[in-house]
Specification:
heterodimer; A: 293 residues; mainly alpha; MetI-like fold; 2 domains; 0% strand; B: mainly alpha; 71% helix; flat
Chain lengths: 293, 310
């Protein structure tokens, strides 16, 4: 990014280049230090999961394990039922994310493309829900799901709320993105006799794929991070998720921190894998979406 | 009007029918939104106000007690004043910390550095970790005798600290975890920085502005709506903080992390006092509302445009 003004004097240009190079080296150095600090807790947890209990309490602690005790994981898996938790967690996440994405697309389409009475009012009411703290509605919703619909002990109270567009933020994101799709595409398809739903699902949706990936990721993270809802609605061991399983496991194991850390690593793993798989489209998507100035 | 050309009338009818159909489609598409607004948002909000005036254990018939729950909270509740203070102090530290941290990291990530996705991933991954895992991990890191933090303190020649076991340190310690997990803010800041128009930067450069001036006079004004948005979202989510108390501290030590959300949970689901917990939720709602309003008044900008506007 050299601008014309600097081309006048060769010396100034060279010195500017040098300053830029120094600045870039310094940036990389600082970012590396910050990154090391950010990743250290995760490394430390991992390191603590593969060492013996005696090494865990040794002073000074070793940065690298003297002996890699992978067997800790086998021991942990004896009572930490990874696959049960995996199955249970994803039997909440998959239906909820699917429902949230599909209903979100329908709702966003109405706001982005259709004219109807009361659009502004409905939109404003929706914006209001972003500012509504979830803690406020927690108890009435609990009463509604368990007393009203008798869904206590099932996953439905955690899934059904996602049938409402997955939260207005996601609808807003999809709407912003749909508006960048030229309306001429709709008009041309309409002349060709395509129905609105055909236009939506075969023309608009494919061209807003990055936004859809962002929405899927955000919904996933929201559910993946949740502990409160699961603590409220899950009440039998057969239904334990990662979050509940881990909390119970570490409570039961007391000071056996290496097993606790092994269970923690196992719990963290699926999220990291999913991020690494989706990170490119995710970050691209966020950059392209309504996060513009 | 009576002798309108036939074709015109037809087209008007056609148009009208088309518009009716458009409204019908919109209505059908918006069914999820209507359900969300009513069942998930506004009806429960009204319901919480109603429930707050009852004494109800969830089993026997609810008893109407008017404003007794509120009177009791303000006059006799042993947690109330602590919880308000703790919630607000925590939210302030966590919001300020995460905004500062994420903006700094984003500014670095926005520079031309090699392997940018790699660095970005490192700062973002803590956000992808499940809350239960994060707090189990940090319980070990904060462990008083063998934890990583006190080990680092010892190397630096500092006295060991109690962290989450000390009433004075528990809030900053928990806020640090929130800062660590603010990868979402980083991604949003990075995105907004990439969209700062190059032309402004170059114009400022040609005018001889140095890096610092460019930052204050070009970058910050350009991303100020995003700063506001991030601040708002961070404030609302941090005022609602509950997971640290659920997974780590149980509100302790000495009510040092008795967050309002945790009290709502405790009264509602552990002590089965649904009416009383609802009264707490109403007060909590007011507090969040006041802070949101203050934020809008101070930094007022309209992030979400109207329905028609872009």
């Amino acid at each position: 990014m050299t601008s014309k003004a600097y081309h006048s004097g060769g010396g100034a240009f060279a010195s500017r280049k040098r300053t830029e190079r120094i600045a870039n080296t310094a940036t990389v150095a600082i970012i590396a230090i910050l990154a090391a600090m950010a990743i250290l807790p995760i490394y430390w947890v991992f390191r603590s999961s593969v060492i013996s209990n005696s090494e865990l309490y040794a002073y000074p602690p070793s940065f690298l394990p003297k002996e890699w005790l992978w067997s800790n994981y086998l021991r942990t898996l004896e009572s930490f039922e990874f696959w049960t938790y995996f199955k249970n967690t994803f039997s909440i996440i998959i239906p909820a994310v699917t429902a949230g994405t599909i209903t979100g697309i329908f709702s966003a389409y109405a706001f982005a493309r259709l004219n109807f009475k009361g659009k502004r009012l409905i939109f404003t009411l929706c914006v209001g829900t972003i500012l509504l703290p979830g803690m406020v509605t927690l108890i009435p919703l609990y009463v509604f799901w368990t007393r009203g619909l008798h869904l206590g002990g099932t996953y439905w109270p955690m899934i059904l709320p996602f049938f409402t567009g997955g939260g207005f933020f996601n609808i807003f994101l999809l709407k912003q993105f749909m508006e960048t799709v030229p309306i001429e595409i709709d008009e041309a398809a309409e002349i060709d006799g395509a129905s609105r739903m055909r236009i939506l699902w075969f023309m608009i949706v494919p061209s807003i794929k990055p936004a859809i990936i962002v929405v899927i990721m955000l919904l996933f993270i929201q559910l993946w991070n949740d502990l409160l809802q699961q603590m409220i609605y899950i009440n039998s061991m057969a239904k334990f998720t990662f979050a509940i399983g881990l909390t119970t496991f570490t409570g039961a194991f007391g000071t056996k921190w290496n097993y606790a850390m092994a269970a923690t690593c196992l719990t963290m793993l699926p999220g990291i894998v999913i991020y690494l798989l989706g990170q490119r489209s995710f970050v691209e998507g966020i950059t392209l979406t309504g996060m513009k100035n | 009007m009576i002798d309108l050309p036939k074709t015109n009338t037809e087209s008007i009818i056609k148009k009208k029918r088309y518009r009716n159909k458009e409204s019908l489609t919109a209505f059908l598409c918006l069914i999820p939104v209507f359900m969300g607004l009513s069942i998930i948002s506004y009806i429960p909000t009204i319901a919480v106000f109603v429930l707050s005036m009852f004494d109800w254990n969830g089993l026997t018939a609810p008893k109407f007690v008017a404003l007794d729950n509120f009177v009791r909270i303000f006059s006799r509740d042993m947690y109330f004043y602590d919880s308000v203070r703790v919630t607000i102090v925590y939210a302030f530290i966590a919001v300020a910390g995460s905004l500062l941290y994420s903006l700094i990291i984003a500014l670095f990530l926005n520079r031309k550095i090699p392997a940018r996705p790699f660095w970005r991933a490192i700062f973002f991954i803590p956000y992808m970790l499940p809350a239960a895992g994060v707090f189990t991990a940090w319980r070990w890191l904060y462990e008083v005798n063998y934890g990583l933090f006190n080990y680092a303190f010892r190397i630096l020649g500092l006295p060991p600290q109690q962290f989450v076991q000390s009433p004075a340190q528990v809030l900053p310690s928990l806020a640090l975890i929130a800062v660590w997990c603010s990868g979402n803010l980083i991604v949003i800041f990075v995105a907004s920085l990439q969209n700062v128009a190059r032309v402004y930067m170059e114009a400022a450069e040609i005018d001889g502005a140095n890096a610092w001036q460019r930052f204050w006079n070009v970058t910050i004004p350009c991303i100020s709506p995003i700063i506001f948005y991030n601040m708002l979202m961070a404030l609302i989510s941090n005022l609602q903080v509950i997971t640290p108390a659920l997974a780590m501290t149980n509100g302790g030590p000495q009510n040092g992390s008795m967050f309002m959300s945790y009290i709502i949970y405790m009264y509602g689901f552990q002590k089965n006092r649904l009416g009383y917990a609802s009264a707490y939720a109403v007060i909590f709602f007011m507090i969040v509302g006041i802070f949101t309003a203050i934020l809008f008044k101070t930094f007022g900008s309209q992030f979400f445009g109207g329905g028609e506007k872009k």
